[in-house]
Amino acid sequence: MSGKIYFEDLQVGQRFTSDPVTVTADEIKAFARQFDPQPFHLDEAAGEASFFKGFAASGWHTASLAMRMMCTSGPNLAEGWIGGGGDITWKQPVYAGDTLTLRGEFLELKHSRSRPERGIAVVRCETLNQRDEVVQVLTANVLVWRRPAG
């Protein structure tokens, strides 16, 4: 869909797929230095020796990349992707060199009784690596504006 997407434009079962994003070792280190400074996210050798058995991105880095993919190549929600809570699960590590794609599906659409100008869309997003392995699952409540009258 092109143009701004409003609540009325969405349908239960509607799906979308993002453009791919490749994760580099430098990006993993930069994110970790700022937000998750653990040795296995900062140093390749520490990553190899860790639970991850490789140089892995922080789960929060993966979540941030999923958000980027939603915003840059997911549906263009009229007022943006505004979260209202949800659930996130990391299924397996993301390693330097992995290419990620996000696949989303709208599971439920709820009209707001107290705020008629908006609704809530429940969306399930799977982040997959280049082998189509699910690395993260996010189910989120997203605030979506209704089309303005007139």
Task: Walk me through the topology.
Layout: E1 15-17, E2 21-22, H1 25-35, H2 39-42, H3 44-48, H4 59-73, E3 82-90, E4 99-111, E5 118-128, E6 134-145
Antiparallel strand pairs: 1-4, 2-4, 3-6, 4-5, 5-6
Shape: elongated
The biggest sheet amounts to:
6 strands, antiparallel
With helices defined by DSSP (H or I, 4 residues minimum), what is the helix count? 4
The total strand number stands at 6
Output mean pLDDT.
Answer: 96
SSE series: EEHHHHEEEE
Q: What can you see in these coordinates?
A:
With 150 residues, the protein is an alpha+beta fold. It is 23% helix and 33% strand. The protein has helices spanning 25-35, 39-42, 44-48, 59-73; strands spanning 15-17, 21-22, 82-90, 99-111, 118-128, 134-145. Strand 5 and strand 6 form a beta hairpin. The radius of gyration is 17 Å and the shape is elongated.
